[in-house]
Amino acid sequence: MARFRTLLLVLAVLSALQFSGCSGKSGITVSLSPSTTPTINQGATQSITATVSNDSTNAGVTWTLSGPGVLNDSSTTSVTYVAPSVLSANTSATVTATSITNTSAAASLTITIDAVFAFISNSLESGTLGVPYSGAISAGGAATPFTWAIISGSLPPGLTLSNSSGTSVSIAGIPTVVGSFNFTVQVSDATGTPLSQSFTIIIAPPPALSVATRSLASGTVGEAYSEALQALNGTPPYSWKVVAGNLPAGFSPLSTSGIISGTPTTAGTTNFTVEVTDSAKPAGTASADLSITVDPNAANDSKLNGNYAFLVNGFDPNGRFMAAGSFVANGAGGISNGVIDTNDPANLQLNQSFSGTYLIGLENLGTMTFTGLGRTFALSMMANGNARIIEFDNTGAQAAGLLLKQDTSAFSTAQITGGFAFGFLGADPQGNRYGVAGEFSADGVGSLSAGQLDDDGSAGATQAAAFTGSYSIPAASTSGRGTMSISVSGQGTTNYSFYVVSASELLAVEIDQVVGQSRRLVAGTILKQSTPGAFQASSLGASVFETSALEVSAGSATPQSQVGFLTATAGSGDITISADQNAGGVLSAVSGNGKYSVASNGRVTLTNSAIATPDPVLYLVSPSQGFIVGSDPGVIFGFMEAQAPPFTAASFSGSYAGGSVAPTTADATSEVDAATADGVSAVAFVTDTNGASGLNPEQSSTGTYALANNGRGEITLNGSVAAILYMISPAEFWALPTSATSPVEMFQQ
User: Fold this and answer.
1) Which of 102, 352, 471, 583 has CB atoms 3.0–4.6 Å from 484's, for a disulfide?
2) 210-295 has which CATH code?
3) How far apart are the C-alpha atoms of 97 and 30, rounded to whole Å?
């Protein structure tokens, strides 16, 4: 019975061992190839492969090395052993492969490495005449001390072989002769066994004279600048001059010693070429293209100070784009308490908060950046603290508009009272150009009444449509932001946010959600009327008007703009039109004699005006000032101002800030300008542009002007007429540039 129990115990153990083997670990063996000890020379390699038997996981092996050398290119099945490149005596190394699955299974291979007495160095670096040289020759594979000697040929003059008993010897010195020098070096080991090898050292002439200065520090408008140019090689002393281009405006001529100095007057990047001549016989010369960037000066940051409202209108990658908002500028480059509403066919963003920074340069041009929104605007400051602005960043937006100082005492519903006229521009539900102008009465407690509007879009024009509405400004508002709704019978209700500039001016943007341009989207200005309900024929007299339109024909769209005179004769109801037109870069004259009629609410109808066919409608703000909206397929839209002639050349004098009105197409160029006229015939511009070529800041141009006594003139730049000039008063003019995108620009002092 005891024997039977013993037999059962043995069988149980055997069974356990059998099932343990099923785990894949029992019986694993590792074998290597080669399986016998190989012999290799120093610096040679040996490939080794491993085979793991009875490993159901096929995990392979890990490799370890005992002795000199390194293992390269290891995998779970192979490795390459690399012997040391230098040995003083024969040696050996052992490579071991260990199973990953069963670390108790391993195999080793011993490799014999023979030391070979040999040169390790095969060549020497070239040297340069007169430049310190250092090189080394090494040997190995034998016991030291070594004995080194040159047994034939010679080193380059000026170089010597060091006294060494080690495995390397140095060659050093200052080469004195140009050429190729061949020599043979012999090294003997401790047993006296000699070994020799031929070498060549090439000594080259010194490098040619060159300009070491490859870039120059930036400068700042109005601040002293000084940089010294540096030369490399050649024979000093050096002499410098500018051989192409010019140094920035305000800099002194380049000194012969290479000093660039002066006080820059204009921001921008200036490119030029300098040349240096050395004192060698014959003299060497070298040149380099350089540039200096002059940054704007923040000296005028104090001109942007207080509460501001802004409005821009244009395009972005989604279609029609517009934004309105307000912020506080601290007069020292900081923006706080910002709020902005933006709208386009893909995204409506309301009440976005922001802070920011700004910089106003000496020319009264500057930039302001809204932190966190990724938006930057270029601006041109007027003397009254207002500005024209354009989008000036990489968001893809092409927009232009106004930045106006706010009267914070008007931040209440009660302050917005009386009759108002408005003009809004944007896109209709089909995404095509759309304009609307009209008038209404605000009661100071939130209701709009007696509203009337005309609009124009791809679906046609609506004339003299009545509307009502409501508006409100939150109590204790710090931003001047309010909301407004307008309800037109048969058209529905549209909603707006507006920002108070004063009790007489609001900047508005539509805040209805527009998905895929499913409904119209507009923005513009609301102005208080001077005589609401009491306009008459005499309210229209002498004025300058500007309009833009988009003429579509045969599948192509051509931007078209006009600037000209509208003169009314009150007693007869006659009007005379005389204007310049730019249609895609083609200039022409527009003239006509027609009739007009003024309603008491300020709505003016024109007949045979020649401005457009059919004629546009005007909504007056004050005598000879008002909004223009078309009823034509091109969707004429614009504004007019009362003019005060006569004028002389002296009327155009001093500094003006200007910029584009809202662009007509997404590929238009928008710009802001600082213009200076001398009151005789000279005019200069500094311009920031955003167009097809990207952002171009601080572009300077000079030219001449001629001005007739009716206020029309021409500005000539680089020998060609660049713009048609219409003076409104000595403090304000509008310009019609001759470029193909047909912009209109407005300037004020």
Assistant:
1) 471
2) 2.60.40.10
3) 7
Inter-CA distances, 241 with 244, 257, 274, 280, Å: 9, 9, 6, 17
Beta strand 147-153 with 637-642: parallel, antiparallel or unpaired?
unpaired
Alpha helices in 541-620 (DSSP H): none
Cα–Cα distance between 662 and 265 in angstroms, integer?
31
- DSSP, res 255: P
User: pLDDT digits over 427-481, tens only?
Assistant: 999 899 999 999 999 999 999 999 999 999 998 999 999 999 999 999 989 999 9
Q: Which helix (H) or strand (E) holds 9?
A: helix 2-21
Portions of the chain given CATH number 2.60.40.10: 29-114, 118-204, 210-295
Q: Would you say 639 and 556 are in contact if contact means Cβ atoms under 8 Å apart?
A: no
Give the chain's radius of gyration (CA, Å). Answer: 43
Q: Is the pTM of this model over 0.90?
A: no
Q: Assess whether pLDDT exceeds 90 at residue 293.
A: yes
CB atoms within 10 A of CB 668: 24
Look up the CATH superfamily of 29-114. Answer: Immunoglobulins (2.60.40.10)
Q: Write out the two tokens for 52.
A: 């793991």
Contact 185, 223 (CB under 8 A): no
Contact assessment for residue 465 and residue 453, using Cβ atoms and an 8 Å cutoff? yes
529's tokens: 């009327």
